[in-house]
Amino acid sequence: MTIALHGLGISRGIAIGPAHIIERGQLDIPEYELEPEQILDETQRLQEAVRAAQEQLRAIRQHIPAGTAAEIAALIDAHILMLDDTALIHEPLRLIREERRNAEWALKAQRDALVRTFEEMDDAYLRTRRDDVVHVVNRVQRILLRHSPLRHEQPDSRLAGYIIFADDLTPADTVLMQHHGIAAFVTEYGGPTSHTSILARSLGIPAIVGLHQAHVYIRDEDPTIVDGSRGVVLVDPDAASLEFYRSRREQDQRYYSGLIRLKGAPACTQDGVRIQLQANVELPRDFEHVLQVGADGIGLYRTEFLFMNRAAPPDEEEQYQNYLRAVQVLGRLPVTIRTLDLGADKEADNRRHGPLAANPALGLRAVRLCLKEPALFRPQLRAILRASAAGDVRLMIPMLSNLHEVEQVLDMIDDSKRDLSSAGMQFNPDLPVGGMIEVPAAAVCADMFAQRLDFLSIGTNDLIQYTMAIDRVNDEVNYLYDPLHPAVLRLVYGTIAAGLAAGIPVAMCGEMAGDIRYVRLLLALGLRTFSVHPSSLLEVKQLIMESEMGPLQELARRALAAPGGTEVATILEEFRLPAGAGANSTTS
């Protein structure tokens, strides 16, 4: 009998193959008190286990195929570095020496303390960093407990074509499995912002997370189908399901392969309205992807990755070289570099100090953090200015809430220009400076911001969250996260109108811009610059090219007058493309 299970699809694609269950099992951690003469040996045992875990990770790193994106190796390196972190190892050593706990017990106590710290944080990204702590500690614990290596970590493992089921996977697991040619993976835990999820998307592996109790229904070698786009797993599929999904897989492959024909075509509507289609990037490998899909430039270059998983923040020169690389790869295309947005959903290891904020999403983050810590901010401003000498660079300020912040940043930019001029360094004296509209206060006052900035960009992820006063990753309230809520649409429309009145461009770089359900509505509201993940760009372009602006005026009028998101969704259904159009043949 076919069983259908549902989780969260985090890397799209369809895979068909036998199941392989990774049975790590719950580690049985012994707890006992040491005799005084055992303490020295126990500290050495823990230190040796840590070194062995590092060696295992280094060996896994060597399995990474040539040509694989650099950030994949960086994730493995981050786990190696965690084993050098005094926050992880120093406390267990103290517990062994002062409280005479055995190594396993001491390590578990520190793991639990660190996990509690991360779980108290309000945002998704920081909470998923707990997974890295658990992954690293479990590796050391398995060595301490003398457990045998797991099947996928053995050199002669043969997992090609298998669909992997596990409680969770580490980045190291994911790299090894991709090396073995797995078809897909499904985990009980994890979220879309975990390192493993990021890797799955980067490696192009169909994947589903958050599929609870899967082990109850699945056994090794069970025939299985994974639909990573819809988050569906079919166990023991019947002939009709197999035929359907094989056909879907072939259809999707033809569709996505066919989209490449749009690479060189301008994103124009049927009635000749030209739309700018730019790309969001975060990791160096994304630069080439921008060119592969024919983007009009980079509309959002997230710089946080430079600051994460390291002991100290990058200096000016390192940042400059990274920004310069993006400019050189893009050639004459624009590169919009967002200044550091550490805080609520992202944090750097080198900045974890002081008391935890009760609500980090509303605390010291983004431009607020940068203005409070000019020693962190000034090197970035100088690096961006220096990179502007090599191409079309724009600087974008995140999470603005008042004009005073704009004035402070502009003053710091002017100071940096004077410093660079004195040092004889080149830069673009007319570097465009824009701001992100992601706080309702900024959206309401968008006309004021438009008078002081060269462009605006709407960050819908935070704008929706703050407008609705909800945590979008909280299962109890995330049903209220609604891009179609009248308040959200009015803020978006008002921001676009403010830019038009001031004669400056307005882009949208949030997830809403890359969701094909909303593209035609955004066109109707007047959006003319979209910035989306490179993997979504050609789908969005096809939908734009199949649209006509005339009928969309009625869509805008009706959507803005609708009393709720449900009514807007109904209106959007009336304006969908005819059946058989490309956008309807893919996931939504």
How is this structure best described in words?
This protein has about 600 residues and is of the alpha/beta class. The protein has three domains: about 5-25 and about 160-255, Glucose Oxidase, domain 1 (3-Layer(bba) Sandwich), CATH 3.50.30.10; about 35-145, Orthogonal Bundle (Enzyme I, Chain A, domain 2), CATH 1.10.274; about 265-435 and about 505-580, TIM Barrel (Alpha-Beta Barrel), CATH 3.20.20.60. It contains 22 helices and 16 strands. It has helices spanning about 40-60, 70-80, 85-100, 105-120, 125-145, 170-180, 195-205, 215, 240-260, 285-290, 315-330, 365-370, 375-385, 405-420, 440-445, 445-450, 460-470, 485-500, 520-525, 535-545, 550-560, 565-575, and strands at about 5, 10, 15-20, 165, 185, 205-210, 225, 230-235, 275-280, 300, 335-340, 395, 435, 455-460, 505-510, 530. The protein has an eight-stranded mixed beta sheet with strand order 1-8-7-3-4-5-6-2. Strands 9-10-11-12-13-14-15-16 form an eight-stranded parallel beta barrel, surrounded by seven helices. It is globular. The model is unreliable at about 345-355 and about 580-588 (pLDDT under 50).
According to DSSP, the number of beta strands is 16
Mean pLDDT figure: 85
The first-to-last residue Cα distance is 29 Å
Number of separate structural domains: 3
Helix content: 40-55%
Residue fraction in strands? 5-15%
CATH topology of the largest domain: TIM Barrel
Structural class: alpha/beta
- Biggest sheet features: 8 strands, mixed
CATH architecture of the largest domain: Alpha-Beta Barrel
Q: Order of strands side by side in the largest beta sheet?
A: 1-8-7-3-4-5-6-2
Low-pLDDT windows of residues: 344-357, 579-588
Fourth-level CATH superfamily of the largest domain: Phosphoenolpyruvate-binding domains
General shape: globular
